[in-house]
Amino acid sequence: MGLQGLERRASGWWDLSLTCLFWGAVFYACSLTLADPDLWGHLRFGRDFLASGRVIREDPYSYLTAGRLWINHEWLAEAVFAAVFSRFGPAGLVILKTAVYGLTVWIGRRFLLRRGLSPLRANLLLALSLLPFTHHFGALRPGVFSFLFFLLTLLTIHAAEAGERRSLWLTPLFFAFWANLHGGFAAGLGLLLLWALLRRQWLGGCLGCALATLVNPYGISLWLFLWRTATGPRWDISEWNPISVRTIPGAGYVVLLACAILGFALSRRHLSRTQLALWAVTALLPLLAVRHSLFFVMGLWVFAGEHIADAWDRFHRGDAGLGVRARATLAGLHFAAAAALAVVAWRQCSCIRMEPEVSHYPVRAVALLKAGGAHGNMVVHFDWGEYVLHHLGPRVRVSMDGRRETIYSSEVYREHLDFIMGVGRWDAVLNRGRPELALVSRRFPEFNLMSGKNGWGLAYADEESGLFARQDSPWLAAIRELARQRGPGREPACADL
Torsion over CA of 53, 56, 61 and 64, rounded to 10 degrees? Predict the structure, then answer.
């Protein structure tokens, strides 16, 4: 084999090693899963749907909203989660999430390759654009489906811009499906409508997509609900705040924004004003809420990716000139690193981690209640409502959970914030519905205030939580005795699903 043949072979192994390293990193990032406060509710609601065979409309989970109409806009995703969990356990959930995110990245990479990017360019663009936002991969939420469908919407628009309109006629079908998975379908539908208005065509098709989203258990009420929740203030939830440039994701957003603008300015490829306008809309989404950052990333892939690569090629031609031996050595290291990442990622699939510095849960207190067969009404710390429902519901009904404005009034929500922080009429929530139990966090003022509250006694406490019961409740003595018998427990490293 001649020198040129050796160089071609070395180049092929080099590209393959970098691709393996890229996918090893993607597998690792997507498989790392943390126990999000909403995870417990998704499994509870999905499990109850599978057991009853119907979408639950009248709320059975909170004693403050019993019988009230509940619009569960994520019911289908929760049913999928519950079905996978019942068959494959926590590992099945992690693998499902990893597969959906991995499929999304694979589709994005395939698109970039078809637009003329080399595997190295495509891998670099994907890796650098995802790196500041890998924290989004940690939570197992219905939103994982929205990222996939949003990318498919962008690719459909891009294909239509190139004159390939056949895929447009499939969009009503997947919008009908998407509308039952997650509320993110509104972003995709809005972008599709903007494209149709800018092009002054296919408006009837957009109407068909909008009508398709009405194929859900709630009809037009789903749209009214999404409008109400999307326009309401959510200052107390960090992911619904605008992205901040003083954070790592914010700095990454600024860098990617600059790369896209430079790419548009220096690219030799044709760029339509319509595509530029659509990219600008996706670029604005993180400024509305940081949770939309991956929508921005996908807009970068579809509308700016080929222009960034072309601008790079104008000023950088060829590789760094590594010799065959150096390339072979580095390729071996790439393969080794990819294998190590894959092994660690596979081990991560068996565990949904409970990280105290990210989110803490009242594991031992709830275990006591479960062992004692507790039932009745319970005031809960906001982030723990769905954890309690997962383990104890619907025998134990809670005062608040992560569904927020989906089911609770603004007055009830404010009362819980006052209760947690110990301000104003902090004990007002204790007077609603006469709860017998109160499960509070020791990291907030609510614990100290409850310790001095007349009519209530401390039944159990550990470093994370405090469980209180009314003085006239039989649960006070029962929980104390059960805690004495069981002794101290251990915090699990993996979610106690």
Answer: -160
Write the pLDDT tens digit of every residue in 428-442.
Answer: 999 998 899 999 999
Alpha-carbon distance of 242 to 141, in angstroms, equals 20
CATH number at residue 448: 3.40.190
Q: Is residue 492 part of a domain?
A: no
d(C-alpha 152, C-alpha 291), whole Å: 19
**How many whole angstroms separate alpha carbon 95 and alpha carbon 37?**
19
Cβ neighbours of residue 336 closer than 8 Å, sequence gap 6 or more: none
72 and 133 together in one domain: yes
Q: Which amino acid is at 262?
A: L
Q: Write out the H or E segment, with its range, that includes residue 441.
A: strand 437-441
- Only one residue has tokens 């924290």, namely 135
Number of folded domains that form the chain: 2
Spatial distance between the Cα atoms of 282 and 249, rounded to a whole number of angstroms:
16
- Rounded to 10 degrees, what is the CA torsion of 423, 429, 431, 437? -110
- Cα 260 to Cα 265: distance, rounded to the nearest angstrom: 9
The percentage of residues in the chain with a pLDDT greater than 90, rounded to a whole number, is 76
Pairing of strands 376-380, 437-441: parallel
Alpha-carbon distance of 29 to 132, in angstroms, equals: 12
Range 263-271 contact pairs with CB under 8 angstroms and sequence separation of 24 or more: 263/304, 263/307, 263/308, 263/309, 263/310, 263/311, 264/304, 264/307, 265/311, 266/307, 266/310, 266/311, 266/314, 267/306, 267/307, 267/308, 267/310, 267/311, 268/310, 268/314, 269/306, 269/307, 269/310, 271/307
Q: Is the pLDDT of residue 362 over 90?
A: yes
Q: Are residues 302 and 384 in the same domain?
A: no
- Rounded CA gap, 211 and 216, in Å? 10
